[in-house]
Structures are given as C-alpha cells and as structure tokens.
Design brief:
Number of helices of chain A: 19
Structural class of chain A: alpha/beta
Strand order of the largest sheet of chain A: 6-7-8-3-9-10
Number of helices of chain B: 20
CATH superfamily of the largest domain in chain A: ABC transporter type 1, transmembrane domain
Radius of gyration of chain B: 36 Å
Strand content of chain B: 5-15%
Largest sheet of chain B: 6 strands, mixed
Number of strands of chain A: 10
Strand content of chain A: 5-15%
Number of domains of chain B: 2
CATH topology of the largest domain in chain B: ABC transporter transmembrane region fold
CATH topology of the largest domain in chain A: ABC transporter transmembrane region fold
Structural class of chain B: alpha/beta
Order of helices and strands of chain B: HHHHHHHHHHEEEHEEHEHHHHEHEHEEHH
CATH class of the largest domain in chain A: Mainly Alpha
Oligomer: heterodimer
Distance between the termini of chain B: 68 Å
Distance between the termini of chain A: 58 Å
Chain lengths: 585, 579
C-alpha cells in the first residue's frame, strides 16, 4: 500500500497544504479554551466588561480564520485525493492493457474490473479522509496535551496515561478487524463470480434442475459473509463506546483530584475548567481518529489489491529499435522465409505436459498456410506464440530472418493481422471498429477492407452504413456478419502476416469460398495462416501443417499428406465417411 | 412519493424478524443520548461544589459516583446499539441478496436474455451494499441526532430559557448552510455517478475483450481514450467532493458563532448572578452538542438519497413479473417417470418477440424415438423452438403435448430434467473439472464421472491437466479450447442420462475425427430417444429420421433426406447448392 505513495509526488503541494491548513484550523480551535480562562478568571471573576468583549471578538476572529483555512484544506485534500487516484487508475489501466494473455486467463476479468472500480473508489475516499484528518487529529490530541502541560504539569501526566489507554484500545480493535475486512472483500469477489456463472449458465441450471443446489450454495455463502461481517462489527463497535467510557472515567478522576488540589490551593478554578475543556476536545478528536483508522484499514485492503496488480510483471517488452543481428543469427537461416520454427516447446503455467513439443517448420513469404488437427492439439497455441502472446519455453522462432526476440513486442505485432475464434466487436460505429485495426484509416480504406472481407454488401444495407452504431458485443449483427467485420478489421491494417483462427464457422459456403479467393489475391500479399478443423478448407492452402497432441505430425500439400500423414488420413477419412466434405447449410 | 411508499413497504417486510431488535435499538439510543447529555449537567453540578469558596466534598463524591455509574451504563448501551444496528443492516443486506439471487432463478429467460449481466450483478452486490450502508447511517445517526436536539433543547431551557431562545433563533442559520450545500453537492454527485457509469462501462468492455485489444495493438489508443474519460471523471469527482466537504467547516463555523454568542450572554447572566459558572460550562457544552446533529443529519440525507436510488433499482428487480411455474415447489426428488414414450406434438403454436409476431400457427408431430434435424438459415426459429420445448419461453397461444400431456401440466423441473441440453455456447465454472461435470447429476460418484468423461472422449485431455480431474478451471474455462469445452458439455449429458436430447451445434467446434467418435457415443445415447439436432454439417442431418426445414418462423418442409430431395423444394436447393 505504501509503495502507491510514490504516485503522490506530483501532488506533493496539495498533499502537504491540505493537512497544514487543517492544522492551522485546529490550532485556532485549541486557543479557544485559553480565551475561556480569560473570560472566566478575569472577565467574570474581576467583573471586567472590556476583557469579556475582547475575548468574544477574538473568538469570532478565530472562528473565521478556522473557516477559511478549513475550506482551503478541504479543497487541497479533495484535489490531491482525486488527482492521485486518477493517476493510479490511469497507470493501472495501462498496466492491465499490457498483461499477457496468460495473466488475463489466470486472474479472470471480474477481479480486474472490481479492482479498477470498487477498490479505486475506496482509495479515493480513503486518501481524502486521511489527508484531512491524519495530521489534524494527532495534532489536536498532542496540542491539547502540550497545552495541558503548560497549564499544569501534574495534569499533563494524567493526560498522557489517558492517551496511551485510548491508543491501546484503537490498536487492539484494528488488529482484530483488519484481517476480517480483507476476508470480507475476498468473499464478495466470490459472490460476484457465483452471480456471473449463474447468469451465464442459467439454461443449464434450469435444464439440470440444480436451481436448489445453486440457491443453497449462494445462501450458504451469504450466511458465511454475514457471520464474518457481524464478527468484524462486534469488535468495531467497541471503538466509540470504549473511547467515550474511558474519557468519562478520566473526567471523574480529574474532577476528584482537581477538587482536592483546589482545596490545597495548587490549582485554579479556571485551569480546571480549561482542563475539562481539553478533555472534551480530545474525546471529539479521538472518536474521529478511531473512525479514521477504520477507513485507513479498508483503504489499505484496497491499496494492497491494486498494488498487487501494479507490481505483477507484464509481458517481457524488448526495448524498442533493437533490431540487431544476433551473433548466432547467421546460423543457416533461410532469408526468404517469413516464419521459421526451430525446436520450439511451450509449457503453460503449471501444466505437466507441454502444449507444443519440438516444433520445426519454415514458411515462405506470401504462402497460404493451413493448420489443422484435432481439438486441443495446439493449433492456436502455435500461432499465438508466433505473435508474441505467449512466450516459448525453449527453442527459437525466426520472423523475416530475424530472431523473434530481436523485435520489440510492438514491432513484432505490427506485422500481424489477427482474427480470433471468438468474435469480439466493440460498442461503437462500424468505422470505429475498423479503426481499431488502423486508427488513421480513411473511409476509402475502410470500404476496401469491407469489400475484401465480403462485408460491404450488408454494411451498405445498414441505415447509417459505415457509421452504424453496434450494440454491446455487436449483437445487432448476425454471427456471420460479425465474423466478416472482424476479418475486415484485420485486413485494413495490410499486415505482413494474417492469422485466421477458425473464424469463418458462421459463414455460408459460397461466401466463404469467395472470401478465400479474395484473400489469396490481396494486393499486399500477406503470408496467411488459417486454422481450421475442416479438411476441405485445407484445399485452399499452399502448405498444410497437421498438429496432434502438441506435435507437428504433418507438413506438405494435401496430396502429399494423404500418403504420408496418418493423422491427416484419419481426419480426411472421418470426413469422407460422414460426408462432411459438403459444407454447411 | 408513492414509489417511496412502495420501497418502504418492501423494505419493512425484509426487516420482519428484526423489528423487535430495531425497537430495542431506538429505545437504547434514546436512553443513551439522554445519559450522554446528562453527563455535562452532572459535571457542571460537580464543578459547582468546587467553584464556591468552600468545597463540598461529600456532595461532590455523590455526583462523581453517579457520573461513574452512568458512564459505564452508557458505554454498555452504546455498544449494544452499535452492535444491533450493524447486525440489523447486515441482516437486511444478506436477506435482500438472497432473494435477489432467488429472483434470478424465477425470472423468465425472455427477461434475463435482454438484461446486461453486469447490471444485474451490480444490483445484487453494489446497490444492496449501498442500501445497507444508508440503513446503518440512518439507524445510527438519525435517531441519535433527533434525540440529541430534543434533549439539549430541554436541558438548555432548564438552565436558562433566555439563552436557549437565542440558540434556537440561530438554528435556521445552520439549517440553511446545511441544505444549501447539500442541494448544491447533490447535483454534482449525480454528475459524478453518470461519469462513473461511463468509465465503468468502458473499463468493462475493454477488459473483457483485452485479448482483441492486444491483437489489434490498440493498447496506446485505448489508454488515451481512457485517459480522456478518466480526466473528466476526476474533474466532476473533485467538484462533488469539494462542494460536499465545505458542509463540515461551514457548519462548524456556525457552531462557533453560536458558541460565542452563548459565551457572551452567559457571561452577562453570570455577572448578574442568574447563572452559576458550572451552569455556564454546561450550557457551553450543550451549545456545542446542539449544532452537531444538524450537520450529521445533512450527511445522512445525502447518503439516504444515494441509498434510495439503489433501493429503487434493487426493488425494481425484485418486483419483476415471475414465471408462475418457476416458483413451483422444488421437488425433493426428480422422477421423470411422467414421460414414457417420447411423442411430441406442437399444436397451433404462436410466439412473438417484443410483440412482433414470429412463429404463427406452427404444427408439428414427432413420433417417439425419432431423431429430428432442424435445418434452416440463421434466425429461422430453430433456437426459439428449443426454448419453447424446454419452456424457457412460453408461447402466446397453442400447446405442446408430450406423450399426450400438455407440458404446462407437468412439473417444470421434471419436464426440464427429461431433456439433455448441449449448446454451442459452453458453460464452464471456476470449479474443478470433476465438479463441472458433476453439476449434471449432483449425487454422481467420482467413478461415474470419470466413466462419463471417457465416453465423451474428454478423459484424455483431462488427464493431461496439472491435477487431472481435480484441476481448478479458470473463469469461463480459460485455457481449454472451445472443442474441449464441448466435450465436457457432452460428458455432462452422458452422466445425466436424459429421456430427450437437444443438441444445438453441440459439436461445432470439434475436429472431425473427434466428432466422428463423439457421434458414436451420441448415437448410443440417442438410441430410442426423441432427439433434436441443430447442425451446420450435412452428415448429421442426412442420418436423421425426420428433417424439419424452417424459414422465418415457419416449418416449410418436413421429411427424410430422400423424400425432401425428391420434393425438389428449399431443402433440395440448399443441398445441391453445396455440391
């Protein structure tokens, strides 16, 4: 949590001025009892009207100065808290954008979203309160203490005991509640997950008739959270009554000893009243202080959750403009090859089995490569590794005759146009969706890309054409239309390498055929990798890679593979048998 | 005003069991506030015993002992109040969350399909939390605030009616400051809420689709767009926070003014001997206490406005119309014995989406044990038909008979349990693989589950995972391929052993080799069972006992593959277009 504080640097001025002005306000408040002593001892005691008026006027002036400095302090506190949080939010969001695919999968988006919103809000209001109070409260407490020492040394020690006792109370409550609040936050995350899953799987829940189990499960989670929160509340509830009780007991003790000392003549009556007044002030501030500690508590929990993200490592970014020839880069590399894999292995996170095993192949520029193989055989992993979304465990990948690691991630990815299996469109206009592929594109380029992706005809039919606004997730388009827009988004960039990951499943046969035809004759002649499970799609390819259980088991044209590759034969056979060589209806 | 009344009624119904506790809390609050305010009087009285030229020790001790006893009781009382208030609001939060969750399971799918999931979740979590906080604030501040004002006025009058009148005369000043600032800042708070919604929406969309953002290399652009939204949110946020935070100093200033005026008048009264010095100290302390609640109540009112907005959203969800039959008592044990043969008849079915007629007068007869293929272009009504069969959606008119029974007369749970459902969109939970399959049959043993996985050809890849069947899945299934997720879906059905099957593009993401194997398993499963199959691939369709060709909500052709080819209709065109 404290390492977040470095982002406060830019707002140092505000962060310092806020508590300083708060202290100024407190300082003038502390002077009030002094004025009261004058009022009682001199003004009333000696019946001096002038002194009374003087004190009254001073009290008014102090109140006014207090008001002005307090408002100034509130402004700076708000400014510092808001700017600080906005800054972190921006840095955090930027960080999240650079998370690797693996990290996104592992963490899940719901906790990322929670941390970006809920936790950041908690930090903002927490920092605001802390800036307002963290100096003021201790200042009032210790200021009162100093004043008390000035007035009467004996009473001073009495006050020290009081403050220590209150400190112990606050500390104990915090020690008990801090871990409880952290746990509460985690459980809330879990309830969000349950809700999410129940909503997305509602059809399955209703068809398996497990509604009762789901409700019982959620109820149990809600009950457990309730018990936990109640326990935290039981301890937290000690804070205010405990503080007030301790103070009242000390008040009685003060009156008791005070009475004797006045009897002895070692204490003036005015001083006793002032002491009581300071005690009241300490009470007020300590209650605030205790509540502030609870806020700090919650803020610390949120701060830790945010810090955890900020300090996690992002994808390895090579420094830009490295583009250097590596020493062993001279090792028989085919310079005309667009892509070459040498002994590449990939093991995901903590998996036992490698997802890719000793992959070797080479592809020439402008070739149309088909990749096929059974479910989960590593087809997609092979390509996402190439574009730098996953990091290989060992081996070497060459892109354009250079080691993959010689490129910065940006340089590397700039070469690729990628269409994922799961179509994603954004809630903005069609043109703006295409601009995701190439921000500086003009309308002509957009229309051309749409045409190349066989999407122009249906876009033209839309009421606002290319400016048509898409719903969330592109839900005002059919599945096939969505896929074609996603392809156009990849084409508009004129990439050197185009990756199409099984992204034509919703297209009808003829559209798909036309699409392949256009793609093969694109003016910018990209190297194309097309993943598909259907053998007949492979007819388009110049070269076919066959994957099975993470291994490259076939490499060649369809005819060659039918003779040499067992997996390919099986795939081919299975489709023949079931007459799958007819495409979709 | 009327809608607030509705909210209040619903709200009170949730408090139900805790109403007594609440009254206890009110009573205790009232008593503690009186005790809290009576303490300064005692302090004043005690001081008076000292302030004279002579000190009356005995009387002083009596006062001090009373003070001590009162303090202890006060402490206990306040603790109890805090505990009860927390308990009641936490209880409320818990109960409302539970019923909002149950509500989700009672709402028609036609409603749920249209709602944004993020919004439904934030109603259950965020809004309910806000409501609870508002409740806690109100409980702990409002009652004590009002008591404080009333009691201080009473005590002040006893001490000196004249100065009290002065204090009360100054009250409108602090009310004015409070309401002025609250009104101003509420507008800014509304603006802030709007900006916040915009920001959350953006963050949501981008984080959910982070992979595409990265594939398009738009990190920089998205970061810039976010920066703009973030800056404008920060601006309104600053305004909202600053304006609302001037309330505290403003009211404190008024407070100080009142304090000064009391000191001035008080001094005069003491000089004239109308008031004791102890009385004046007590009065000063009351003047201090008197103004505080005005500030607190103004804070509560803002918080309450916030909570009320949330309450409206929560209770709107809770009062959505339910499907009557989803409410049916959940049966203890599902006995799908109602269905023996598996004949299905659709009679004069009409169905409309948002009052736009879609299916009109659809009549279909299906014999027991037939494999039915549904064929037709996207949006032709295949999925709607499935929704109607499983009673996810209700037809506007007409009826569906299974084994001659109107399905409306069949227990909803038993009806649905007879179906095995596999959809193209798979559903993987953040649970172990084992539990993910088990959901189809919660009482299945580990062996049963592994057996089902083997039959679904899922065993092989599951064993390769780090912890095999006990590997915890990521949210949404993370690193599994779409095809692997479909294998898990099929393993569930094999475990469930349903009487009827619905396979909606169930094998779309699989490679053909796996698909062929899976088809064998599925045909075994489909033996003698009425089944519905939606598929893109002809292989699956050709082997069906009967093919229903649909177009724009109508069944235009029906028959076997050969019959339909002979007919030379729409199906024949579709078929030959591809050859």
């Amino acid at each position: 949590m404290f390492s977040l504080l470095r982002y406060m640097k830019e707002y140092k001025k505000e962060a310092i001025l806020a508590p300083v002005f708060k202290m100024l306000e407190a300082f003038f408040e502390l002077l009030i009892p002094f004025l009261l002593i004058q009022l009682f001892d001199v003004g009333i005691g000696e019946q001096n009207q002038r002194v009374i008026w003087l004190q009254i006027i001073l009290m008014l002036i102090f109140a006014l100065i207090g008001l002005i400095s307090s408002i100034t302090a509130q402004f700076y506190a708000a400014k510092a808290a808001v700017s600080f949080t906005a800054k972190i939010r921006e840095i955090l969001f930027d960080k999240l954008l650079h998370f690797s695919w693996f990290q996104i999968d592992r963490m899940g988006t719901s906790t990322l979203i929670n941390r970006m919103s809920q936790d950041m809000n908690q930090i903002q209001s927490g920092v605001n309160m802390i800036l307002r109070l963290f100096l003021r409260s201790p200042f009032v407490v210790f200021g009162s203490l100093v004043m008390v020492f000035i007035l009467d040394r004996k009473a001073g020690f009495f006050f020290v005991a009081l403050i220590i006792l209150l400190g112990i109370l606050v500390f104990m409550v915090l020690v008990v509640t801090l871990p409880l609040y952290g746990e509460v936050q985690n459980r809330l995350d879990h309830m969000v997950l349950l809700l999410k899953e129940n909503l997305s799987g509602i059809r399955f829940i209703r068809s398996f008739v497990v509604k009762r189990q789901e409700i019982e499960n959620y109820d149990a989670k809600a009950d457990a959270l309730y018990r936990l929160q109640k326990r935290a509340a039981t301890f937290a509830s000690f804070l205010n009554p405990g503080t007030i009780l301790i103070l009242n007991v000390f008040m009685v003790l003060l009156l008791y000893t005070g009475a004797f000392r006045i009897g002895e003549g070692t204490l003036s009556k005015g001083v006793l009243i002032a002491l009581l007044n300071y005690m009241a002030q300490i009470l007020g501030e300590f209650v605030k202080f205790a509540n502030l500690m609870l806020i700090i508590n919650k803020t610390a929990v949120s701060g830790r959750r945010v810090q955890e993200l900020l300090s996690s490592e992002v994808e390895v970014e090579q420094p830009d403009h490295v583009f250097v020839q590596s020493e062993d880069g001279t090792k028989q590399i085919d310079k005309t090859a667009a892509v070459e894999y040498q002994h590449v292995n990939l093991i995901y996170g903590s998996n036992k089995e490698p997802s890719l095993k000793d992959i070797n192949f080479s592809v020439k520029k402008g070739q149309f490569i088909g990749i096929t193989g059974p479910t989960g055989s590593g087809k997609s992993s092979l390509l996402y590794l190439l574009a730098g979304f996953y990091t290989k465990t060992s081996g070497e990948i060459y892109v354009d005759g250079q080691k993959q690691s010689a490129y910065s991630l940006n340089q590397l990815r700039a070469k690729f146009g990628i269409v994922l299996q799961k179509t994603v469109l954004f809630q903005r206009s069609i043109l703006d969706n295409l601009k995701m592929g190439k921000p500086e594109c003009n309308t002509e380029e957009a229309l051309l890309a749409l045409e190349q992706a066989e999407a122009l005809s249906f876009v033209k039919e839309k009421m606002d054409g290319i400016q048509e606004l898409l719903y969330q997730g592109g839900n005002n388009l059919s599945g096939g239309q969505k896929q074609r827009l996603a392809i156009a988004r990849a084409l508009i960039k004129k990439p050197e390498i185009l990756i199409l990951d099984d992204c034509t499943s919703a297209l009808d046969y003829q559209t798909e055929k036309r699409l392949w035809n256009t793609l093969k004759h694109l003016p910018f002649q990209p190297t194309i990798f097309m993943v598909s499970q259907r053998i007949q799609s492979m007819d388009q390819a110049d070269l076919i890679l066959v994957m099975d259980q993470g291994e490259l088991v076939g490499y060649g044209t369809s005819t060659e593979l039918l003779e040499t590759c067992k997996v390919y034969q099986e795939l081919y056979q299975s489709q023949k048998e079931s007459q799958v060589n007819h495409e979709a209806i | 005003m009327k809608r607030y009344k509705v909210i209040l009624t619903m709200f009170l119904s949730y408090l139900g069991a805790k109403k007594r506790l609440l009254w206890l809390s009110f009573g205790l609050t009232f008593l503690s506030q009186i005790a809290l305010l009576y303490l300064p009087i005692l302090t004043g009285k005690a001081l008076d015993q000292i302030m004279d030229d002579q000190i009356y020790y005995q009387k002083l001790f009596v006062y001090l002992i009373v003070m001590l006893l009162l303090s202890v009781t006060l402490g206990a009382g306040q603790w109890l109040v805090a505990k009860i208030n927390q308990k009641v609001s936490l209880y409320l939060v818990k109960e409302i969350r539970k019923s909002a969750f149950q509500k989700l399971h009672r709402l028609p799918l036609s409603y749920l399909d249209q709602q944004s999931h993020g919004d439904l979740i934030s109603r259950n979590i965020g809004d309910v939390e806000q409501l609870g906080e508002g409740m806690l604030m109100t409980l702990s501040q409002l009652a004590s605030g009002i008591t404080t004002i009333l009691v201080t006025v009473f005590f002040m009058f006893r001490l000196s009616p004249a100065i009290s009148l002065v204090v009360i005369a100054l009250t409108p000043m602090s009310l004015f400051v409070a309401s002025f600032i609250a009104g101003k800042s509420f507008v800014f708070f509304q603006m802030q809420a709007k900006e916040k919604g915009k920001q959350t929406g953006f963050v949501n969309e981008m984080l959910e689709n982070l992979k595409v953002v990265k594939a398009c290399q738009r990190e920089e652009q998205i970061a810039t767009e976010f920066s703009v939204i973030n800056t404008s949110y920060a601006k309104t946020s600053l305004k909202a926070i600053f304006y609302s935070s001037t309330a505290n100093p403003g009211i404190r200033f008024v407070n100080n003014l009142i304090y000064t005026v009391v000191a001035l008048f008080g001094a005069g009264y003491v000089l004239r001997g109308v008031l004791s010095i102890g009385g004046l100290t007590a009065f000063l302390s009351y003047a201090n206490q008197y103004t505080k609640p005005f500030h607190e109540i103004s804070v509560v009112v803002t918080e309450l406005q916030n909570a009320l907005a949330s309450a409206e959203r929560v209770f709107a969800l809770l009062s959505e119309t339910e499907v009557p039959d989803e409410r049916q008592e959940m049966v203890e044990e599902i006995k799908p014995t109602w269905l023996k043969e598996g004949t299905i008849e659709l009679e004069h079915i009409c169905f409309s989406y948002d009052e736009k007629p879609f299916i009109q007068n659809l009549n279909i007869q299906i014999h027991a044990g037939q494999k039915v293929a549904l064929v037709g272009p996207t949006g032709c009504g295949k999925t709607t038909l499935i929704n109607l069969l499983m009673r996810f959606y209700e037809p506007q008119s007409g009826r569906i008979l299974m084994d001659g029974k109107d399905i409306k007369t069949v227990n909803m749970d038993e009806l649905r349990h007879s179906f095995g459902l596999v959809l193209q969109d798979t559903w993987i939970r953040k649970e172990t693989i084992l539990n993910n399959i088990k959901i189809a049959k919660p009482d299945a043993s580990r062996d049963d589950i592994i057996h089902a996985a083997k039959e679904a050809y899922a065993d092989y890849f599951i064993r390769q995972l780090p912890f095999g069947y006990d590997t915890l899945m990521e949210e949404g299934g993370g690193s599994l391929s779409e095809g692997q997720k479909q294998l898990i879906s099929i393993a569930r059905i094999i475990l469930q052993k349903p009487k009827l099957l619905i396979l909606d593009e169930a094998t779309a993401s699989m490679d053909t080799r796996t698909e062929v194997k899976i088809q064998q398993a599925l045909s075994k499963l489909m033996e003698n069972k009425t089944s519905f199959i939606v598929a893109h691939r002809l292989s699956t369709i050709v082997n069906a006992d009967v093919i229903l060709v649909m177009k724009a909500g109508e069944m235009i052709e029906k028959g076997t593959h050969e019959e339909l080819l002979e007919k030379q209709g729409f199906y024949e065109k579709l078929y030959y277009k591809l050859n």
